[in-house]
Amino acid sequence: MKRVALIVMLSVACLIAGCDQDASARQWVGQVLETDAAVERALRAGDRSAAVVALTSLVSAEPPASVGEDEARAVRQDAYFRLAEIALVDEAPDRALALVEVALGLGDQRDVFSANLYIVRGKAHEARDELVEAAGDYHEALLITDAQLDRALREPSQ
To answer: Where among 67, 83, 99 does a domain terminate?
Structure first.
């Protein structure tokens, strides 16, 4: 989970660079970072219900209009991913599947956020003993990751 949280923070850092003049966007970014920290603290303390409350507030909050659509999607998809992981720990694969469907409905941008959603959906299918569906989801995540790696290797280093 920490890897995904780090990616969200990096995405948000990029967002900050574009919203220096917009107080509402800066405030939203601050709330995202605060929520992320609260979720991490709750999970370390074993308080999954507090983590769920914090993540649910994050996906429910409407970002300011100045926040880029892709940044808002990424933050929400990461939160849904984390909610789905908690649902799996709680042995609720049906709930995990429902959360992933909502998250993918925000857009499959073939990025790390989509790949993570396919992985957690695969885990949920595995928990339901739906191995063919799980394999399909894992394969989809692998295709996304492979394409990202290919793009990264083709880009000139800076």
So the answer is: 67
* CA end-to-end distance (rounded Å), the chain: 28
* Residue 137 token pair: 């989801």
26: CB partners within 8 A, 6+ apart: 16, 19, 20
Indicate which CATH number applies to the domain containing 134.
1.25.40.10
Q: How many residues does the chain have?
A: 158
Alpha helices, H only, the chain = 2-18, 23-44, 48-60, 69-89, 93-105, 112-127, 131-154
Max CA separation in the chain (angstroms): 51
Among the listed residues 103, 97, 112, the one whose alpha carbon sits nearest the alpha carbon of residue 144: 112
Confidence (pLDDT) at 95: 98
Within this chain, do residues 37 and 104 fall inside the same structural domain, yes or no? no
96-110 residue pLDDT tens: 999 999 999 999 999
Q: Rounded to whole angstroms, how far apart are CA atoms 123 and 85?
A: 9
